[in-house]
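INTERNAL AUDIT FORM
Audit reference: QA-55
Scope: verify that the stored structure record matches its stored sequence.
Auditor: D.O.
Record contents follow.
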Amino acid sequence: MVSGSERIAAALPPVIGHRGAACCAPENTLAGFRKAKELGCRWVEFDVRLTADGRPVVLHDNRLERTTTGRGSVSGMTLAEVRRHDAGSWFDPRFAGERVPKLEEAVAFLNELGLGANVELKAVRGVEAATGASVADILARAWRGDPAHLLVSSFQHAVLAAVRDRASQLARGLLFRRVPRSWLRVAMALRCATIHVDHQWLRPTTAVEIGRAGFPLLAYTVNIPQRAKTLFDWGVTSVFSDAPHRLGDIAAGGRSCKRSLPIPLGL
């Protein structure tokens, strides 16, 4: 096994709630994490990026329009400006009043719920190292759960390098849409413990290759039970899902196939 991979592989559940439980509650909010817990998730995935004043917040897009009542780019606003906007009512009026969480708030809430986490880091150009270092500092200080239940991932190599250099004890996951030929070289250089791929581009031969190299393989974003079953048959360790409760039978070894859900763009 690659360093760190065996520890993470033993801790990873078959299904991880994507952005909390994005089908059932506003994504990347405390309400979404709470819903994921109610649905039986043991881990959630969420996204983190920096505000203009260097504060890590839980938000997928760099712009506010899709998931808040605000407008503009997160990287161009202070934390206070980002937090001024509602992050729940767009999904359903029942969630009005939800705010974009600070990373510290999210970690404290996950500690309280007893949930593991895959923290995906996103950085605009020029702040990759700052993003990795800032998030690494907070996670190293604030995470109270089992260290094996925390994973930091990114598409951006400079971000992962900064996490590696700042807090090498944090397990790292390398994200790809389509796995390139150089995947192993990059993963080894960044000392990553897991490989994450877009399931739509994954092939069984690639899944076998990654598994033989000793890396747990995680696939995003899987909302169709039969597709999840196929991926598990290929050797995928975990799938990210907006509707984790709909994959429960498959994750447990069942064969039922409920109605499918639309697949969102990106992780």
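Auditor finding: record pair retrieved intact. Residues 254-267 have pLDDT under 50 and may be disordered.
Action required: none
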